[in-house]
Design brief:
Elements: H1 6-35, H2 48-73, H3 77-104, H4 113-143, H5 151-180
């Protein structure tokens, strides 16, 4: 478990690579903005409600996620099972809100450079939510089998929690760029 596990190091390396990808996409956003006479380009500003709802859901998920990680460290199977079910629900919730977020951008991906980069940013982040949700669902299912109550599974739960924290943290600068930078 933790840094003694190769899986932990693999997850950390994956987050580093993915974080670099997010940083590059945000750099493209800022570069395109610096070239444009107006920002957003020929589009109204995106509606705040759907993106803010996603942000609230993601931030609300941090506390139960931290608890699940602590319970996994202490190998408290019953609590981990409950926590994984809660985190599965909290992984689905932002995807439901995200369905409304794309139309709230008020620009299509193929309208202009602005549309392309904001759809790319949302698409990248959505992919990460889905990736972690699938992992969470699989781990939740495993925790309810005979394979759940072993040290390795608890380590996997901790790694999953670490990755979810990354998904939440990665969203905050994306949210700021998409929803607040155009309002400055």
């Amino acid at each position: 478990m933790g840094t003694a596990s190769l899986t932990w190091w693999g997850t950390a390396a994956f987050m580093l690579i993915e974080g670099t990808g997010f940083a590059l996409a945000l750099a493209v956003y800022l570069y395109l903005m610096s070239l444009a006479a107006t920002w957003p380009i020929d589009s109204p500003k995106p509606e705040l409600l759907p993106g803010t709802l996603v942000t609230v859901i993601l931030l609300a998920s941090v506390l139960p996620n931290i608890l699940v990680s602590r319970w996994a460290e202490r190998q408290e199977l019953r609590k981990v099972r409950i926590g994984m079910v809660v985190m599965s629900i909290l992984g689905i919730a932002p995807l439901i809100a995200r369905i409304f977020e794309f139309p709230a951008l008020k620009v299509s991906w193929d309208d202009n450079a602005y549309g392309s980069i904001v759809w790319t940013l949302l698409g990248l982040h959505t992919t990460h939510i889905i990736t972690d949700l699938v992992d969470t669902l699989v781990l939740a299912a495993l925790m309810f089998t005979r394979h759940g109550d072993n040290r390795r599974r608890y380590g996997d739960v901790q790694d999953n929690a670490m990755y979810w924290n990354f998904v939440v943290a990665a969203w905050l600068p994306i949210y700021a760029c998409i929803y607040w930078v155009p309002r400055l």
